[in-house]
Amino acid sequence: MRQEKLEKLIRKYLKGQASLEEQQKVDKWYTSFDDTEVLMVGDPDNKEEIRKKMFSNIQSGLVVQRLRDHYAARRKRRRFIGTSVAAVLLLVLVATGVISRYYMKQSHFSAAGIVYVDRHTEAGQKRTMTLPDGSRVRLNAGSEIRFPEKFSKESRNVFLKGEAFFEVTKNPSKPFIVTSGQFTTSVLGTSFNVKYYPEEDQMQVTVASGKVNVTHEDNAVILEKNQRVVFSSADSAWIKRVVTAQDYIAWKDGWLVFQNEPLDEVMPALERWYGVKIVTKSIHENPKINKFLKVGLLKRRVTLKQQNQSLSAVLKALGHAGNFTYEMRNDSVMITISPQKFYLNKDLVTN
Fold first, then answer.
1. What are the helix (H) ranges across the chain?
2. Number of independent structural domains in the chain
3. Residue 226: left if φ>0, alpha if ψ -120 to 50, beta else—which one?
4. Which of 50, 60, 234, 329 has the smallest set of CB atoms within 10 Å of its CB?
């Protein structure tokens, strides 16, 4: 990462303005240091003193300047000697937020003195929480959310990775802003659903009531009740549609609902919902045909609506319509495609 870009990123990090994706970049940069450098600040006898010094330097304004010195020294000599490396690396650790994670397991300090609260759900879990302004959030499986312990006077900013349904308390003078990667969803008071899993190539917003504004780089789209937008990173395309919003927020009430969606998007959702790993295979003797069959199956579209059903019941319904068999093994599922029956059903529809 270029020095200038890193400095800008760290400034955002310390001000509490970095997105989850940007925070991960800073963490990744930190872990790129070699073991010799990192271990030089690892003396257990000095850890508490080191942490206090790190925390006291957060608001000193010296971090970026020391990082410049650090880069210059690295160019001249790869290895550092004695206490000088410790002094520089302490500041590096501050920049990556290590001290914050040490002091607060679920809360994080920013340079501006803001305390951030982190909440997450594992696969197979859902969670409901109330934000400082009274807004309610329902967090879907495999998701993370970060928000300030107390919102600022100007805005209400939260950071999301995964899927969540928001019921926002109305406040015309203080916009509610959800940041998901490079996307922002801004509202004043409404209810809406945001879905953004970084490992997938889509970002989706569905509005249940009110109006929201979704932005990405220089593009923006306004959504009203029963409207949905999907952004595909594969082709950088926005698709805005009129929908029945309830179909896309029913997950919060235990409903699995898929509306003409390809199985390669359904399978990851099932993995998160039930906390399993799903693998597909074909029994054809020709490897090329095997690959074709697996790709063909995953591109098939499915319409499904079931509430509070077991994984076995869901797979049975899909398997019956799609002519595939499945075997459950502890926390994994093996789906087997039958070449003879593969072409019988083009699309899968079940209720």
1. 3-14, 20-31, 35-39, 47-56, 63-76, 83-95, 98-103, 245-249, 263-274, 287-299, 311-322
2. 3
3. left
4. 234
Q: Is 196 helix (H, G, I), strand (E, B) or coil?
A: strand
Residue numbers of the domain that contains 179? 115-248
- Check whether residue 236 and residue 259 sit in a common domain: no
For the chain, how many residues are written? Answer: 351
Q: Which residue, of 232, 248, 264, is where some domain finishes?
A: 248
Tens of pLDDT, residue by residue over 225-276, are 999 999 987 777 889 999 999 999 999 999 999 888 888 888 899 999 999 9
Q: Give the CATH number for residue 291.
A: 3.55.50.30
Burial of 272 from C-beta contacts in 10 A (0-12 / 13-18 / 19+): buried
Residue 132 shares a structural domain with residue 233:
yes
Can you tell me which residue has the tokens 């107390």?
150
Q: Do residue 229 and residue 133 come from a single domain?
A: yes
**Would you say residue 117 has pLDDT above 80?**
yes
Its pTM stands at 0.64
- Give the residue with greater pLDDT, 65 vs 54: 65
Burial-class residue 263 by CB neighbours within 10 Å (0-12, 13-18, 19+). buried
CB burial string 149-161: b at 16+ within 10 A, e below: eebeeeebbbbbb
If you average pLDDT over each of 91-100, 163-172, 337-346, which comes out highest? 163-172
Residues 144 and 205 in one domain: yes
